[in-house]
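Below sits the subject:
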Amino acid sequence: MKNNLILTLLLFVSILQAQEKKQTYSFTLQQAIDHALQNSYSAINADRDIASAKQKKWETTAAGLPQINGVVNYSNNFKIQQNQFTVNGQTNTLEFGNFNSMDASLRLSQLIFDGSYIVALQASKTYLKYYENAKQKTNSEIKEMVINAYGNVLLAQESISILEKNKATLSKTLNDTQETYKNGLIEEENVEQLQITLASVNSNLNNAKRLQDVALKMLKFALGMDINDDLTLTDKLDNLTTSNLDLAFSQGEFAVTNNINYQMATNFTEQRSLELKLQKSKALPSLSASVNFGYNAFNNQFQLFSQDQKWYNYSGLGLNLNVPIFSSFGRHAKTQQAKIALDQAKTLLTQTEQQLKLEYEKAKSEYDFSIEEYATSKSNLRLAERIEKKQEIKFTEGLSSSFDFSEAQRQLYTAQQNYLQSMVNIINKKATLEKILNKN
């Protein structure tokens, strides 16, 4: 009994802890986008890429600033080197050195001129700009992904709502038909046909519920949330559709230079240009200077840190001039490779420009079509509702067969799904067009 009580308490505590860790969120579409731009996994790593690029830029800058290095060397000559010399025909042996020696020095070095360093500074700025553009591209992709995921959840929710209404209406019609059949007024086939339709609606409803669960978890993943957290969507599908209906949106001019992919291709071309400049700069001389200051000490016994130990200081100033003269055309070959890479980057930039223009035309066409499709599906839904209603009246009055009524129902259910999908298409297609136009 006591053990059971302890186990119950432990289980209760674990449940409470799990509930405390579980968080609850409620987002409009814009709030979901804002949350994802701060907390999604891609956004977090894109910020880290920029932070790393800034450190890389400083690393490059620091290479041309004063460098100070301290060096301490200790040697223990347990066998001192000997040398021989001859005096008056007699050969003598003399030891050179001490058993213990130590040297401590500081070295200050400064780069005075190096063409490669100047180019490297320019390249570090381009390197940082590349990751800033990559961050902007990531944000654009995150926004589109969240819009699509948000719309898929709303689509699943609306599908469930419609299917539940269809199920309720169909169940009532089936019950009425069964009663009519019991009274011998209609054939059994009419009942069976409605049962087939109801089974199909039930299957679609169960599938829609599963899809809603998957879509919601995919949205949580896109937002950078734990998939077990609670998330409520406060925007409605019809409201989002209305707010994204903008016939004038796709009629403006497309400035390809505003597209982030074009900007990144331009950045890539700049990098290749700097690489060519770097290879050319290697033919220039480089000059650096250094100052050394240090102390050394010698002793046959290890008493280098005693008060009586003498330390001898030294210092010096050095200049180093390196003048490239002949490299057996190695530098020329590297320069030509960099030139070819630059030409390739320029061609890639032109290709990107033309590709983006095609993508814009395609996205604009698909957005315009989604608006037309929405109007058509809305009109078709109204017609399908009227046809289904008329067939239902005819069926209950015995003027129409169950097959005709079931066909009208299937036509209505298809029109309902097409209408819902057309609303999601407007939202998604506009998001794609905004991505190409680089609209925030």
Residues 115-182 form the longest helix (68 residues).
